[in-house]
């Protein structure tokens, strides 16, 4: 008999296997999972943050989870979401056939040219 690791037990993998074996139907949760900020303080549920974090998890199979912390998002259409992390700004599109989210383009914060401020408080570009 094989031991099941904690990672598999804690992930949805074990539940997915149970669902496939039992033949029961997958039921979509009523709301996205709570987003927990980097400081690990549990805050009241925020649907906007939780939805954005779900987009971040679903885009490129979770690549952006390890590439920065979620800051915010803007839903541009039913199939496009602009995500903002502390390091990147990716534009995510939903594949209509597979239902997966992929990156159309992205920009690193380091690549953004911010306006420079002069001594007399005016902005130069």
Throw out a few tags for this protein:
125 residues, alpha+beta, two-stranded antiparallel sheet, 3 helices, 6 strands, Restriction endonuclease subunit S
How does the SSE layout of this entry go?
Layout: H1 6-10, H2 13-22, H3 47-58, E1 70-77, E2 80-85, E3 88-94, E4 101-108, E5 116-117, E6 123-124
Antiparallel strand pairs: 1-2, 2-3, 3-4, 5-6
Estimate the mean pLDDT confidence.
Answer: 82
User: Based on DSSP secondary structure assignment, what is the total number of beta strands?
Assistant: 6
Total helical segments: 3
Cross-sheet strand order for the largest sheet:
1-2-3-4
Alpha carbon gyration radius: 19 Å
- Pattern of helices and strands: HHHEEEEEE
The chain-level structural class is: alpha+beta
Helix content: 10-25%
The biggest beta sheet reads: 4 strands, antiparallel
Distance between the termini: 66 Å
Uncertain segments of ≥5 residues (pLDDT<50)? none
Range of strand content: 25-35%
In total, the number of domains comes to 1
| Oligomeric state of the chains present here | single chain
Which word captures the global form? Answer: elongated
């Amino acid at each position: 008999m094989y031991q099941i690791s904690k990672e598999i037990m804690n992930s949805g993998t074990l539940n997915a296997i149970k669902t496939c074996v039992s033949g029961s139907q997958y039921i979509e949760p009523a709301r996205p999972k709570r987003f927990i900020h980097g400081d690990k303080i549990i805050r009241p549920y925020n649907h906007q943050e939780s939805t954005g974090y779900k987009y971040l998890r679903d885009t490129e199979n979770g690549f952006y989870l390890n590439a920065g912390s979620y800051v915010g998002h803007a839903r541009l259409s039913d199939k496009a979401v602009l995500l903002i992390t502390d390091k990147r700004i990716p534009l995510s599109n939903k594949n209509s056939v597979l239902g997966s989210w992929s990156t159309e383009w992205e920009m690193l914060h380091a690549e953004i040219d911010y306006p420079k401020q002069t001594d007399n408080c005016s902005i130069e570009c």
